[in-house]
């Protein structure tokens, strides 16, 4: 849609075009916000040296295996991960 203003023509966004562009603008803003947030969290985590779950779990398993002479190893998912197994069967 074109409007004549003081002899010069300028292009205006109509309501339909604005409604089509708005989701893309919001998506771009959300993507930038996610990128900035992820970057900041990574920087803070490295600075605080937060533990890695895998390293803690490996340490716990090594410690438990070192306490027994004939260990029985049980494989499982996250439910069995925190379970303390009996020391004898």
Radius of gyration: 30 Å
List the domain count as a whole number. 2
Number of helices: 3
Strand fraction band? Answer: 5-15%
The largest sheet is: 2 strands, antiparallel
Order of strands across the widest beta sheet? 1-2
Series of secondary-structure elements, N-terminal to C-terminal? EEHHH
- The termini sit apart by 82 Å
Structural class by secondary-structure content = mainly alpha
Low-confidence stretches: none
| Arithmetic mean of pLDDT | 78
Helix content: 55-70%
Concise account of the structure shown:
The protein has 89 residues and is mainly alpha-helical.
Describe this structure in words.
With 89 residues, this protein is mostly helical. The protein folds into two domains: 21-50; 52-89, no CATH class. It has three helices and two strands, in the order ββααα. Strands 1-2 form a two-stranded antiparallel ribbon. β1 (2-5) and β2 (8-11) form a beta hairpin. The N and C termini lie far apart (82 Å). The model has no long low-confidence stretch (mean pLDDT 78).
Write the layout of secondary structure elements.
Elements lengths: L1 E4 L2 E4 L3 H34 L4 H14 L11 H4 L8
Antiparallel strand pairs: 1-2
Output the keywords:
2 domains, 89 residues, 3 helices, mainly alpha, two-stranded antiparallel sheet, 58% helix, 9% strand, single chain
